[in-house]
Amino acid sequence: ARRLEWRTAYGPGQTRRRGIANQCLCLASCPPVQALRNLRTATWWDEHLSQENVDFLKQQVPEEYNRLTASKINPLKDEPWPRHEWEPGSRRVGLVGVKLGMMPVWTKDGERHVVTMLQVQDCHVIQYISKEEYKSKTAALVVGAKNVSPFYRTEKQMEMFRAAGVPPKQKLSVFKVTDNAIIKPGTPLYAAHFRPGQYVDVTAKTIGKGFQGVMKRYGFGGQPASHGQTKTHRRPGASGPGGDPAKVFKGKKMPGQMGNIYRTTFGLKVWRVNTKYNILYVHGSVPGHRNCLVKVRDTNLPTHCEKNQQPPFPTYFADGDEELPEDLYDEDMFRFGDESISVV
Amino acid sequence: VSTDPQGAVPLRASELPAAATRLSTAELRGLRNDLFSKEQARQRALITRTEKIEVTLEVPGHQGTLLIMNKGLSTPRCCARHLTEWHVNSSALALVDGEPWPMHRPLTQNCSLALLHFKMEDPHHVNKAYWRSCAALLGQVLQNAFKEEFSVELLTSPEVPVTSGAFCCDLVLDSQLDSWVPSEEALRSLTRDAHQLIQQNLPWEPLQVSPSFAIKIFSHSSYKQKEVEERAAESASGLVTLYRCGDHVFVSGGHLVARTGLCSQYDVTAIHNLGQTELGLLRRAQGLSLPVQLEAHHTVWRKLRGRAERLVG
């Protein structure tokens, strides 16, 4: 019943957005012209358009996106924001990527590990929120990833993207950053933001399993399949101590919704970075299904703080002086193209 | 008609001698509205006896239906009311014996009637009428938007095709405003005024009058009187069609659609300066509009709007 309340409070057409993303939409500047008529027509975008017009728009929208992104390769052309040096204790922005899949990787000692490939597609900084607006000790940056069609975004969302000068994005994530790491909205972010040897935390929505019983959800033992069990094979069994509390404690593990919630995997090592296709090879597994959007940031774990020192700060800029090779490998990683052992 | 002592050319309101009173925009509007209403009542009173005419419908679904209507009183809208509410609300123009006919003009003889809407295969009559109506609406908005101390003179709007991207309305403002450049906020305010008129769903009432009466109505504007004479010379019957929307009376170059409520998306996009003429600095106000049946997605509308901001015509 509580869940239903949320849905009706937001209205039938809107999706429920947690946290700051909703605030981002409300913070969009320039109020639209109020049409006094009610324009709530339930129709699709190309209903009244001729086939020529539809083809023209389908061809023109990607061209417009290319124009928008091309001009942002050199954000230095117009009043760049100052770039500061990394200090211990600074937090920089993260990336939003697409989970492509997994593959094996070998170390030079011969150990085999698995890595997840995360591709950074069309990642841009959308909005900067100062710490007063964000009502917190640190400022925040909103980052968007993966261009989508403008025909399925509302006017308010389109205004926010237009203010940043970027095409509309599929996912927006908020990153808390220190003041020396703020970046101008509209700047593109690349996979070279992370380097091999750094450690990251990856947050994504886990694969949804729906309403699941207690055995799958919490790994309960269940009951035997035979020997007189009457209609009881996968049930939770007892629900509490008994007469003394005479109640079931809050948080009792019971059947319910499993998956489709945000979870973070901490302390994942970056093994390899491909700068041509913007792919990060990250140790182990990451929540989410293939082609889902994940949020990648520098790790919070204190054990890996030394390895995350002197990163590209505030981010890797493509128009800078650094010339990066196509692939960056961690020093422990075995590369198949390397020369074999030679004896002098 | 205010004339100079020699009784030659009628003077403009701004050229009148100081002794004569210059009417404010609101008073002028009221005066023209009263004259229009009186003439409308007079023309209606000429019909003493109700005679019947036969109207054959050529509406899909009601092909060949015969309606017995009143001569000189029934309009194509009355005929549509005999069908369904959708016919009444969606018909923009009528075709009487193959000729375009405004929805609120009474029928005078036995005829065949077709009702035109925006989603037909061949909507060119409706398109032209719609574009002209939007230009007329823009003119009405501009006439009433400025403060009382600034005079506004609407000129003949050029006939622009729908494919050009925007409809336009030529006007000459007070000479004090020669250096005024309209800001985004000003255009938005004009758009809001236009939406108010659309929301009120006012009909564009046509009235066929003699040229002398039309000259009398526009006695405070010599430009309008010249326009009336030109239209009288062009028309076959020698009569001039005046239109009234709310309380704004004007002359139009052709037929207009039925009601302001047929427009749904309406934006005043730009006001360009065209250059100095003998009347003053000529400006062209442009706008973009789509009717109720052809609304566009906001992304598509934004692209169309980008084109409508460029100078047209």
Strand order of the largest sheet of chain B: 2-1-5-3-4
Ranges of chain B with pLDDT <50 over ≥5 residues?
1-20
Number of helices of chain B: 8
Helix content of chain A: 10-25%
| Proportion of helical residues of chain B | 25-40%
Topology, number of strands of chain B: 12
- Main pleated sheet of chain A: 6 strands, antiparallel, barrel
Quick one: overall form of chain B? Answer: globular
Largest sheet of chain B: 5 strands, mixed
Distance between the termini of chain B: 34 Å
Q: Specify Rg of chain B, calculated over alpha carbons.
A: 20 Å
N-to-C terminal Cα separation of chain A, in Å?
A: 76 Å
* Succession of helices and strands of chain A: HHHEEEHEHEEEEHEEEEE
List the SSEs and their pairings.
The complex is a heterodimer of chains A (344) and B (313).
Chain A: H1 2-10, H2 20-26, H3 51-71, E1 95-106, E2 112-119, E3 123-129, H4 131-134, E4 139-147, H5 155-164, E5 169-177, E6 188-189, E7 199-205, E8 210-212, H6 214-218, E9 256-258, E10 262-274, E11 279-283, E12 293-298, E13 327-329
Antiparallel strand pairs in A: 1-2, 1-12, 2-11, 3-4, 3-6, 4-5, 7-10, 7-12, 8-9, 10-11, 10-13
Chain B: H1 25-45, E1 52-57, E2 66-70, H2 76-81, H3 85-90, E3 93-96, E4 99-101, E5 111-116, H4 124-145, E6 152-154, E7 167-173, H5 184-200, E8 204-209, H6 211-217, H7 222-234, E9 240-245, E10 248-251, E11 263-276, E12 281-291, H8 298-308
Parallel strand pairs in B: 1-5
Antiparallel strand pairs in B: 1-2, 3-4, 3-5, 6-7, 7-12, 8-9, 9-10, 11-12
Helix pairs in contact in B: 4-5, 6-7
